[in-house]
Structures are given as structure tokens and as C-alpha cells.
Amino acid sequence: MMIDSLEHLYTQATDGKDRVDLLIRLSEAYHDFDYPKAIALGYDALAIAKTIAYQKGVFFAYNTIGLSYNASGPIDSAYLYTKVALDLAIVLDDPYCLAIAKNNIGTYYLNQGNYPLSLQYFQEALVHDGETGEFIDPMSTYANIGIIHEELGDEKKAIDYYLKSAEAARLKGGEANLAYAQLDIGYVDCMLEKYDSALQHYQDALVIYKKLKHQNRVAETLYYIGEIYQYQKYFEKALAIQKEALQIYQQIHSVADIPSMYGVIANLYKEMERYEEAIAYYKEAIKLAQDGILTSLLPTMYKDLSMIYVDIHDYENAYHYNVMYEALKDTLFNEITHDRIAKLETTYELKVEQAENEKLINEQKHQALILGQRTLMAIGASLIALLVVIITIILYKSNRVKAKLNRDLEQKVEERTAALEAANQKLLQSNDELERFTYIASHDLKEPLRNITSFVNLMQRKLEKIADPDLQEYMGFVTRNTKQLYGLVEDILAHSRIGAQGQKTGKAIDLNVLLEEIKMGLRSMLEEKNAQIFSEELPVILGHKSELFMVLKNLVENGLKYNESPNPQVRINCKQEKDQVLFEVADNGIGIAPVYHDRIFEMFTRLNNRSIYLGSGIGLATCKKIIQKYQGEIWLESKVGKGSTFFFTLPLKKISENQVLEMK
Ligand code: ADP
Question: Would you list the DSSP string of 91-160?
């Protein structure tokens, strides 16, 4: 079936490489049951591969031809093709090809009985096999090494290798390989004399091989089964099976196996004491082995034949074959061979051990590296954790310190605030006391002053009759100063009254009306100085009439008083801004130097000649006190000789109906 499909694929294939590959696969398939056909297909593949210079194809063609020759003889050809394949694999430097080629040449030397050389090649094949990283064919290599050890009598080692082979076959998978594993295990069972179990494994393998039509494997398995029957002394059964195996080998022209099968059957006859048949089969086996140069088969055959001749008392022949046995035995199984094998084995084991050690060391290094990295990470993590802890502690401590400082600060602030409040309270208290004192003092001063003024007036009237100019002048001086003193006391009293009037909103005051009253009061001054007062429409303001009167009167009167113009003028303007009214009182008077712009609002500040300009220096201080009481501001703009403009603001409060009525 598989061959059919491969042949079909081959007829379809046009690519040279594909054709070579398919021919090689076909050759390998025929290898199981028809060596001549397998060899012919190998040659076809080789021819095409060479023409298209397909190197790997050439290698596999040589390889498959060599394999088939190895199984079918002639042995020289087998060596030739296998060796050429190996040389090519070396040139290709391909571990896959090298593993295959070395296993095959090892098999050639195994058949030749050159165990040290075959073992060396097998070991090298295993190394290449390891290099490829995939199990190419270590199962047959292991099994072959097992055979060497078994031949050399080291059963323990042989079992080791057979088990390795079985494991490799199992790992490879697939029916054929599993059957191969069964064979290996059966073989080990057999060596351990567990015949029933061995038989079971062989039977299982047989079923598979028959199904797959792997004739050479069927024959091989039959041979193993026959061997067990022989051990169990079922000679007839064994004979039938071994003959069946021989027949199959003959069908597939397995020249390498045919002589050994003859030997096996001869041995069976010998045990059955059928010496004539035994001798005939041995002789045929020896002839075939000699033809095929299968040297390894010969010593046992010579020995067995010699023993048979002893049994039948033919000592001449017995001696003859014994001599031949001795001669060959030495070449195959001498001590040197044993030593070389042992040495090879030790070196190989050492190598394997070394490789394993290296692998272990590498793994250890890797582990150490990982461990190192982990340790570093752990240290790093611990350091970070430590840092976090330290930072937390520092933060905690600094927070505590901060909290303490805050508490201290708060306490200090509280203490200071309390002290400030106390001081403020004291200040307010002393201010009140002062105001009260000023009020009482000025109020009480007024009484005697009024009396003095009245008596001074009386005295002056009497003195008018006495025409004494000096006396007249003195009296005039007394009258003026008394008047001035009275004015001063009046002003101080007015000033101190402002505080006493409290914070109440007051009444709605129409400033236009107020201004008319002021004008009336200043009438004589206006006439005297030929002065004028202009005003635009003024608003109604909530407040105390006397206070607003004082502000407006002071500013207007100052504007006229400190004025040298032949036509002194005072203009009153007002502008509504958001929630307040801005007033401007501008004059064309003597002006005020900027350095005094702040100072003139202080009590008793007078800038001009007192004899020319009468005044107390209290007016503007009183204005400021009143404006501030109304939460307004007062300032001025002025240049000497260019007149002055006083600005002040008053809040614009909503006036209720009652307040309007009161105003009327
Ligand atoms: P007085 O009773 O002396 O007028 P004020 O407090 O009203 O006191 O004024 C303080 C001083 O400011 C005045 O003596 C005067 O020198 C100056 N002054 C006030 N108003 C004007 C003005 N409109 N023009 C020039 N100087 C002025």
C-alpha cells in the first residue's frame, strides 16, 4: 500500500530532487522484503541525484545501496557503498547523515566480527545523533552495541543497551518502532530466562511486522521465537519456525542472514542428535559465510562442527575444525580485542559522563545565576522596604515635630491674639477716656470762656468812651484771642462729639439742602471775597446731618479761605460708583505742596501764616474722622498756586420710606 502510493507519487513527480527522494524512500521500503529491488531503486536515485548535483540525494542513495548490500552481500560492495556514504557525510558535515553513515559502517564491521571498530563507529554515531537533538536512529545503534557486548559475553552491559534501544524506539513512536521495542524487551527477557514474557513480546512484534509486511523483521522475529522453543526443548516446533525464517531470508535474498540461519538449524539438529543433518547444515552455513566474508559467524560454527565430530567419534574432522576454530577465535575474541573494547567503552562512558557533568554544571550555573538574580532582587526589595520604613519614620517624626510646632505656634498665636485684644481693649478704653476727657474739658471750658467774652465785650463798650489808643489796641487783642480760643474749643468739642454719636445709620440727608444752609452761613464771606460756590445735583445720603454738614462746610470754607484769587471759586461734583458716591470739592486757591498731603489730616496741622489765615488745624482731622466713621475715604490732589481738589467717598445705602419721610 505504502509502496503503491510512493510509486504513484513518483510517476507524478517532475522535480529532480522530489524524484530522488521518492526513489530513496521506495528503496528503503523494498529493503524490508526485496533487497535486489531495493538496490536497483538505489542506483536509479543515485543516477538522477548525480546529474542534478543533489548532494544529500547522492548520500542517501549510496546509503540505501550500502544497507541493502550489507544485508544481502556481497560484503565488499556493502563496505564500498557504506564507506562512500560516510565520506560524503563528512564532506556535508551534517550530523544527521553522519549518524546514519557511522551506524551503517559500524554494522558492516559488526558483521565482520571487528567489534572494536564497530563499537567505535556506533559510539560516534550516538554522538552525532545527540548533536542533531532528535532521535534519528539510536535504537539500532544501541541494539548493535548490545549485540557486541553479548557476543563478548558481557550480558549485563548487553541488557543495558537493549533496554536503551527499546526506550529510544518507544520515544520515536510509530508501529514499526514499537515492534522494535518489543523485540528489544523480549530479547532482554530471554537473556533473563523469562521465556514466557519474551515469547509474548515477540508474538506482539510479529503481528505488527506481518501487518507492515516487513519481511526481514518477520524472519528475525520468527528466529527469536524459534530460539525460545529450542531453549524449552520444543525442538520440532523450533525447527519448523527456523526453517520458515530461513525461507523468508532466502526470498528476500538476505545473504548476511542466510548463513547464520543455516547455522541455527544445524545447531538445532545437533541438539536433536540428528548429526548428519546438523553436519550438512553447518557445512552449508560455513560455505555461505565464507562466500559472504561473514567472518564473525565462522568460529562458533567451526567449534560446533568440531564437537559434533567428537560426538560421532570422527576425531580427524573434529581436530581439523577445532584448529580452524582456534585460529579464528584468536582474531575475534583475543584479549587485545577485549581490552580495546573495554577501553573504548570506558572512554565513551567517560565522555558521556563528562557531557552530563557539563550539562549539570551549566544547569548549576544557570540556577546559581537565577539564585543570584533572585538574591539581588530580594536584597533590592529589602532595601526598598527599609527605605520606605525609614522614610515613614522620618515622615512620622517630622509630622510629629510639625504638629508640635503647629501646636506651639497656635498657642503663641492665641497668646498674642489675646494680648493684642487686651491691648486693643485698653486702647479703646483709653481712647474713650481721652475722648470723654476732651469732651468734658472743652465743654467745661466753654462756660468760663463765654463769661470772659461777655465781660470783655462789656469792658470794651465802657472803654470806647476813654479814648486811649493803647488801651484800645490791647482790648482788640484780648477780644480776637478770646474769639479764637472760643473757636478752638468749639472745634475740639465738635471733633470729640463724633465718637460719642455712635454707629447708627442716621437719617436720609439731602446734600443739596445741606449745601444751601452752608452757603447761607458763609454769605458774608462770599460777599467779602467776591467768591462763588458751584454745585451739580447732589445725592441723598444716609447719615447724621451735623457730621455731613461739618465735612462739607470745612472743605468749602477752606477752599474759600486759603484762596488769594480775586474771584475765589469752589466747585462741588459727585459721581456714583457701584455702591458709593465719589465727591470732589475743587478750589482755585493757594494749593498745598505734596509733602503735606497726608499731614494736613492730622490734628492741629496748619501750613500757613496764622495771622493771615485764622484757624484751629482741626477741621480736616474732623472731616477724616467722620468719613472713616462712614467707611469712606478722603484724599486730595493739589499743586502750590494751582488750587486743590479734595476727594471723599460715602457709601450709598438703600434708603427706607421712613427715612425719606423723616427727611421731609
Ligand atoms: P484750619 O482751621 O487751620 O483751617 P484745617 O484742618 O481745616 O484747619 O486745615 C489745616 C491746614 O491745611 C490749614 O491751616 C491750611 O494751611 C491747609 N488747608 C486746608 N484746606 C486748604 C485749601 N483748600 N487750600 C490750601 N490750604 C488748605
Answer: HHT-HHHHHHHHHHHHHHHHHHT-HHHHHHHHHHHHHHHHHHTS-SSHHHHHHHHHHHHHHTT-HHHHHH
Judging by DSSP bridges, how do beta strands 540-543 and 644-651 pair with one another?
unpaired
Q: H-helix or E-strand containing 175?
A: helix 175-191
Q: Is the CB of 558 under 6 A from ligand 1?
A: yes
226 lines ligand 1 (CB under 6 A): no
Q: What separation in Å is there between the alpha carbon of 449 and the centre of ligand 1?
A: 25
User: Among 494, 579, 492, which residue's Cα sits nearest to residue 542?
Assistant: 579
Closest CA to 570 of 554, 583, 557: 557
- The residue to mutate among 485, 529, 599, 606, having the most atoms of ligand 1 within 8 angstroms of its beta carbon, is 606
Tally of CB atoms within 10 A around 536: 10
CA angle 279, 280, 283 (to 5 degrees): 80
Residue type at 236 in one-letter notation: E
How crowded is residue 455: how many other Cβ atoms within 10 Å of its Cβ? 11
pTM for the predicted model, two decimal places: 0.49
**Ligand 1 atom, smallest distance to 605 CA:** 10
> Could you list the mean pLDDT of each consecutive 10-residue stretch along the chain, which spans 664 residues?
82 90 92 86 94 93 89 77 91 89 88 84 85 69 89 87 90 87 91 92 94 91 95 94 95 85 94 93 91 78 90 88 82 62 68 71 83 83 85 85 88 90 85 78 81 85 79 83 83 77 72 95 94 94 91 96 96 92 96 92 83 84 93 94 95 68 45
Task: Name the strand (E) or helix (H) holding 580.
Answer: strand 580-587
Give the SS3 label for residue 625.
helix
Of 618, 568, 616, 566, residue with least CA distance to 588: 568
Q: Where are the alpha helices (DSSP H) in 312-334?
A: 315-333
Q: Cβ(638) to ligand 1 under 6 A?
A: no
Q: Of the candidates 192, 251, 202, which has an alpha carbon nearest to the alpha carbon of residue 224?
A: 202
Beta bridge partners of 219: none
Q: Whose CA is nearest to atom 9 of ligand 1?
A: 617
